[in-house]
Structure formats: structure tokens, C-alpha cells
Design a protein that fits this description.
about 25% strand; zinc; Aminopeptidase; about 35% helix; 2 domains; Alpha-Beta Plaits; elongated; 4-stranded antiparallel β-sheet; about 425 residues; 10 helices; Bact_exopeptidase_dim_dom; alpha/beta; cobalt
Length: about 425
């Protein structure tokens, strides 16, 4: 514990540096090309600049090709700090470089990418998700470096792209293109979810299914609807009945998760009508489904497609030689939930012990509806946990990271490497 005590004190001494680093990272809007932005390149370069003189044993950059992004790549950075036994189990701490768009700027009290420090918090888009944990992981290792201390186990800090839109260019790409990087006895911490006092350890996730419903009818003047087919009306009918069907058929509860039931949320809508007197010929609605692992996503998609045929038949009419409406289901993201991490696995037991020592608290295990990197490791049979101390302001206006949470989480990350 004496070594850990020294590292804990050094992390406290580094608090100012941690805040300054977080501020610098927030300034760079690393938003996916899926949202019309340039991606993570500039933020990755800033991070590499920050750590260029730090004594990491190895820093590797793996660029996933994406012609839409700046310089045609989505960068993924791995920084290694070797432990006393380089061949033994390693500790991965995975954070993501990308952030979501700011949303309605009018609801922000300040510019999302001009961070504000106020009342012990750093405000800005990406501050909590995932900037707080990026910085905590960096300075957990920096404290050991400053003291000349080698951890018990090798630490791999992974800063990856594309978490917010599916990880196709991030951890998923790394695992497919560079499987040699990963070992079955690795310990994996994903600090991208948690609660306000750091007592929740996520060991299971729901399956994720995002799909877009595209309805095509025939646009006409709203005063003569009989001459066309209002796609908006068809889409409303379909969305209502699909929402009802999914909640009724897949309505079981599992108290491991919060919320305990599957969720099926209509989110985005889109239509071409830009005037009150246009009956639109096209309409789109997106569903975000977070599904208990007991259910198959295949069955949910099959039900959605079957209902589409029924609704098409209900409104069918021939217009200009074509039978309308047409309803198409497009899958945007799909992740079938892997088996949960064993609550008795080493990473769970180690994290619980660290939290007892440093905070005097007992942490419980459970499941969530959101998707994280942990699912990709679980698919490989590598136990992974999701844990952080968060006020859960991610994706909201006026998102913030609490400075004390960042500092205290860095202590926990250091202890995981040392004990």
C-alpha cells in the first residue's frame, strides 16, 4: 500500500495538469463523418503531442481507412507502459476520442467547444463522454512514470475512434485487422459508464438494433389527397403499431439491467415536405432498440418486416402503374449481446477490492442498455467491465466532467495496475 499511497499523492499533485489537458482536448470537435464532420484526426494528433515526451515504452497508431474523414483515416492509439512481468496478464483501459454533435446550441450556456471551468466542473461537449476518462487514464500512468514506479501488470491505454457510431473504424476494426493485439488473459476496463459514487460495475449489455423505416407514397397537394398517397400517414400508422407490437411481444423483465425491460424508441424522423399544404410522398423514422439478451434481433427484424407487408396491404393503391406504398427496413447498427462477464472474474474482483481500499465502498454488478467497447471483448471471451464515476451528463446540453471524479478515477485506475 505504501507504493499506492505515493501514486495517489502524485495524482493529487497532477490535478492542475489534468484539468488543462481536458480543456485542450475538449476544444477539438472530434465528431464522426456520419454526422458530416471530419472525425478524430486532429484530436488524435493533439493527444500524441501531449504524450510525446512521456516515457511510454511503446506508442502505436493504427489508422482505419475512411475516405470521408480528414486525411482519409480514423486513428486508434495504443500506449504501453510495461509492468514488472511483461508476459503476464495486461490491463487495458479503453477510452474513445470521438464525441457526439452538440445538438441544439441554444440550450448550451456556453460554446460546446470552448470549455468553461466552473464550480469544480469542466463544461463542454465530450467533457464527461469520454474526456474525463481519457485524462484519468493518462495521469494514472503519468503519476507512476513521475515516481519511476513500474506497475505489477503492463498497462495498455487505448484511445480509439468511432465509439459513438458503432466502432466500425475503432475497436471492432482493430480486432478484425489486428487480432494479435489481444490475449485471453487480458484484464479490460472500459471507463465509459457508471454512477455518481462509483459503486456500479457493468458486466452485461443489451443487444442493440437501430433501423430506419423508409415509406414511399406519392406527393400531392394536401387539398387533393385522393390523387396521391400520404407517406406521412402510412409511417405514423406503421410506427404506432410497431411500437405496440414490440413492447407487448418482447416485454419480459430482467432485474440485472436498468431499465429492466427491452426498450424500443422511435427517435429520428425525416420528410421532404416544407410547406403545410404538401402531403409528402416520402417519410422516414428511426427506431433505437435495446433488447434483453434472451431475445433474438433476427425475430424483431422479422416482425418489423412482416408488419410492413400488412401496412402496405392496408393502404395499397395503384398510382401511375405502380403499387404503393413501399415500406423498406434499413439496419443502421446491429450488435447481438455476448455472454456477460462473470461476476467472479479477476477484473471484477480486483475492481471491487480497489474500491473497498480507496473509497470504503461495496460496488454492485449489473447490466445496462447502452453499448460499449466491453461487448467486443466479451465476444472474444475476454472479461471486461464498464466502470467510472459519472454524473451522467453525456450527450446533454451543458455536459460537464466533475474534476474530483476525474482525479479519484485516476487513483482507481492506477491501483488496478499496481495491486
Amino acid at each position: 500500500m505504501e507504493i499506492l499511497d505515493k501514486v495517489v499523492r502524485e495524482i493529487e499533485n497532477l490535478k492542475g495538469d489534468m484539468v488543462r489537458t481536458l480543456v485542450e482536448l475538449i476544444k477539438i470537435p472530434a465528431i464522426s463523418p456520419d454526422y458530416g464532420y471530419e472525425g478524430e484526426y486532429d484530436k488524435a494528433q493533439k493527444l500524441l503531442e501531449i504524450i510525446k515526451d512521456w516515457p511510454f515504452d511503446k506508442v502505436e497508431v493504427y489508422n482505419a481507412p475512411d475516405e470521408r474523414a480528414k486525411n482519409g483515416v480514423r486513428p486508434n492509439i495504443l500506449a504501453y507502459y510495461y509492468g514488472e512481468n511483461p508476459e503476464g496478464p495486461r490491463l487495458w483501459i479503453l477510452t474513445h476520442l470521438d464525441v457526439v454533435p452538440p445538438g441544439d446550441i441554444g440550450k448550451w450556456e456556453s460554446d460546446p467547444f470552448k470549455p468553461v471551468i466552473k464550480d469544480g466542473k469542466v463544461y463542454g461537449r465530450g467533457s464527461e463522454d469520454n474526456g474525463q476518462s481519457i485524462v484519468a487514464s493518462l495521469y494514472a500512468v503519468k503519476a507512476m512514470m513521475n515516481l519511476g514506479i513500474r506497475p505489477k501488470r503492463t498497462v495498455i491505454l487505448a484511445f480509439v475512434s468511432d465509439e459513438e457510431t458503432g466502432s466500425k473504424y475503432g475497436i471492432d476494426w482493430l480486432m478484425k485487422e489486428h487480432p494479435e493485439l489481444f490475449k485471453k488473459d487480458d484484464l479490460v476496463l472500459v471507463p465509459d459508464g457508471g454512477n455518481g459514487d462509483g459503486t456500479f460495475i457493468e458486466v452485461a449489455e443489451k443487444s442493440i438494433l437501430w433501423f430506419r423505416v423508409k415509406v414511399r407514397g406519392k406527393q400531392v397537394h394536401a387539398s387533393m389527397p385522393n390523387k396521391g398517397l400520404n407517406a406521412h400517414r402510412v409511417a405514423l400508422d406503421y410506427a404506432y403499431h410497431l411500437d405496440k407490437l414490440l413492447h407487448e411481444k418482447y416485454g419480459d423483465r430482467d432485474e440485472l439491467f436498468e431499465p429492466a425491460e427491452s426498450t424500443f424508441e422511435p427517435t429520428m424522423v425525416k420528410g421532404p415536405a416544407d410547406s403545410p399544404n404538401i402531403a409528402p410522398g416520402e417519410h422516414e423514422v428511426v427506431f433505437d432498440c435495446r433488447v434483453l439478451p434472451k431475445y433474438r434481433l433476427y425475430d424483431i427484424l422479422a416482425d418489423a418486416k412482416k408488419l410492413a407487408k400488412e401496412v402496405e396491404a392496408r393502404y395499397r393503391k395503384e398510382l401511375d402503374g405502380e403499387l404503393l406504398p413501399k415500406i423498406e427496413i434499413e439496419v443502421l447498427q446491429r450488435l447481438d449481446a455476448p455472454a456477460p462477464t462473470d461476476p467472479d472474474s479477476e477484473i471484477v474482483r480486483l475492481l471491487q477490492e480497489v474500491l473497498r481500499r480507496l473509497r470504503g465502498k461495496e460496488a454492485k454488478v449489473g447490466g445496462i442498455g447502452g453499448g460499449t467497447f466491453a461487448a467486443f471483448f466479451r465476444k472474444l471471451g475476454i472479461p471486461a467491465v464498464v466502470w467510472a464515476t459519472l454524473d451522467e451528463t453525456a450527450h446533454q446540453p451543458n455536459e460537464y466532467a466533475k474534476i474530483d471524479n476525474m482525479v479519484e478515477d485516476a487513483k482507481v485506475m492506477a491501483a488496478l495496475a499496481l495491486l
